Amino acid sequence: xxxxxxxxxxxxxxxxxxxxxxxxxxxxxxxxxxxxxxxxxxxxxxxxxxxxxxxxxxxxxxxxxxxxxxxxxxxxxxxxxxxxxxxxxxxxxxxxxxxxxxxxxxxxxxxxxxxxxxxxxxxxxxxxxxxxxxxxxxxxxxxxxxxxxxxxxxxxxxxxxxxxxxxxxxxxxxxxxxxxxxxxxxxxxxxxxxxxxxxxxxxxxxxxxxxxxxxxxxxxxxxxxxxxxxxxxxxxxxxxxxxxx
Length: 245
Fold this sequence. Notes:
Blueprint: H1 3-24, H2 29-91, H3 95-179, H4 183-236
Helix pairs in contact: 1-2, 2-3
Organism: Georgenia satyanarayanai
Keywords: Coiled coil
Family: Belongs to the PspA/Vipp/IM30 family.
């Protein structure tokens, strides 16, 4: 298992465990989603800290490598200086001093070789760590992107939940209207009005019949009066034979 997998893998495993626990005990979806965002944010913070430590260790290794290279150059310069001095002593006829400086040059060269070896030994590890750091940075970027995606989905789901709740309230109101239809009361009042209209019409019809009977009596009275007049005329002998129309 690589260091990247060990760092982000542990965090991802912990995050999944927290998510599953939240889903299992979720009662309020919005609270669950908010907690999920907080947990994922905390996981990113933990990942950032772990990656920061890894980057810090890499930078220390790079500094040590640079120090080894600098030390190798320094010992190389010392070896060169000692060798030059040995040549001067040998030219001056001082063989003992020449040998002493040659020995110092050899010591410097030995230390130069050791520093160069330490630098070479560190280079594969530094290269590997640089790859790990690059992958960790990419992983963190992906986690941050997932967090933004999670926040966006959280906002969408909360909005949908509120819309669904509002629609549920509307549907409940409609259902209650269907059960307690206010038009029923209007229909009942309309029936009362129709009955009153019918009662008034009945009285009007009765009154109309009474008036017709009164006019009929007048016609009967007129007919009787004409009969009486003609009878009186007959008795007085004003007409003979056919009665004038």
